[in-house]
Structures are given as structure tokens and as C-alpha cells.
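Problem 3 from the worked examples.
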Amino acid sequence: MKNPALSLWLSSFNWRMGHATHAVRRQQRVALNEMTTSMKAVPGKPKRKRWRTARRKTV
């Protein structure tokens, strides 16, 4: 038979670790976003414009 106290402790531990991992990933995403937005301000290659096909005339 499982120890219910141990099972409860493990589930709460897993829940906390999940939240901590999510917070770390969110911070990393924010930091990466800041780095990439500051890089966009640096002049470089112009963005490519999408090439559109000509619309067909409906008769």
C-alpha cells in the first residue's frame, strides 16, 4: 500500500516544480524577446516584400 502522506508530498512537489519551470521559461522568453527587438533597431538588410501574384480578372 502506498503512503498517502508521501504521495501527497510528491504531488505538491511536482506541482511547485512545474510552476517554477514555467516561470523560468517565461523569463527566458522575455529576455530573448528583448534581445531580438534591440537587434531589429540596428540597420541591416531591408525586409523582403512578399511577391504577390496578379489577380485574375473575372469576366
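Problem 4, a separate protein:
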Amino acid sequence: MILKILSVVFIILFIARILFARKLKEMGKAADRTLNLFLIAIAIYLGLQALFVYAMA
């Protein structure tokens, strides 16, 4: 369940990052950096989760 939620959040944030890139630059480097770190954290978690799921199969 949490994997599905994180997958959806990752996709939404990734699309929002693309659509609102100009607005994030106006907000400053802190907002841009925070979103990047959050996306990286979710991507690492999803990658590890997929690794464990496919390793068990």
C-alpha cells in the first residue's frame, strides 16, 4: 500500500517539478533543493523496494 502511495507521489512531484520549474527558481534555491532531495529519497526507496520484491521472486 505504501509503495503505491509513494509511486503516485513520486510521479506527481516529478510532473510538478517539470511544470513549475520557473516558479521554483523564483522561490529560491531552498525550495528547489528540498524538492530535489525529496524526489531522490523517494526514488531510492522505490528502487530498494523493487530490488527486494524482485529478489524474493
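Solution to problem 4. The two ends are 19 Å apart (CA to CA). The chain has a mean pLDDT of 81.
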